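User: Run a structure prediction on this.
Assistant: Running it now.
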Amino acid sequence: MHFQETTDAQKMFKGLVAKAKALSIDYIEVVNDEENVVSVFISEKVQYAVQVVVIPVMAEFIIHNKEDNWILDYIENLFYFTDYEEKKQILEIAKGLMDGNNPDIPGVQDVVPREQLIVEALHDFMEIPISFSFESFLKFRMRSYNEALLQIIESAIDEYKLEQEYQTFIQGLREFREKREPKLEQLHILHDEQFYFYNHEFTEIKRDELFKYIDRKLILHQPLYIDSAVLAPLVSIAPKSISIYTDQIDNGMVQTIHNIFLENVTIYTKKSFENTRLKEKKI
């Protein structure tokens, strides 16, 4: 294997030696006599050694040493994101998608795992004996992988844009809330499939009453749809203190309320709602 960069040759050499040692395979000799060349000599069980040592190490090398730079290059030169922080955030989202996070996102569900695509490309390419430029292999033999990479990046950019819109939305609601005088000092919110509002005395605030609190300017001036059953009345009331009782801390609405009201929100278990309510009624 011939490399353009000496450091790449050294990393590949160390990876192959470590893998062979970890598997206790003593019939593989890895040599790095020339700075940019790594030679692998296999004296027996050639196909087995290629499958369990050479191909896995090459695939891991590509993912850990080349992938990030390719993604960043695509983000800048194909999608024209040049700001460092933007590129970094899109890269993190793309890596998360490739690692299996958020598998339900459109455009990601049907993408073949990148490890499989790389291994397949290497498997089709490897013939014994063989001498090749590693960079040429990456350039001409990784078409399926590159296509999958582009599909992931497009989905990552869509997710990034949605996140930016969400953050703008949250900031707008936060600023709206901060400028208002609280209509109620404290609210208790029970999350039990739906969201139920209670005042400081744990008396339920019915939907009709909640609706009356909604400031129409809030709905008219928001760039995104604002939920009229929960967010609109909550932000309009602008309470100083909110207690949420839920068993789903990662629920989207719970997280949104927390993001808007920040330190003014305290989250409890759903089970503790009745205990707290009974104590309050006794006082």
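The radius of gyration is 28 Å.
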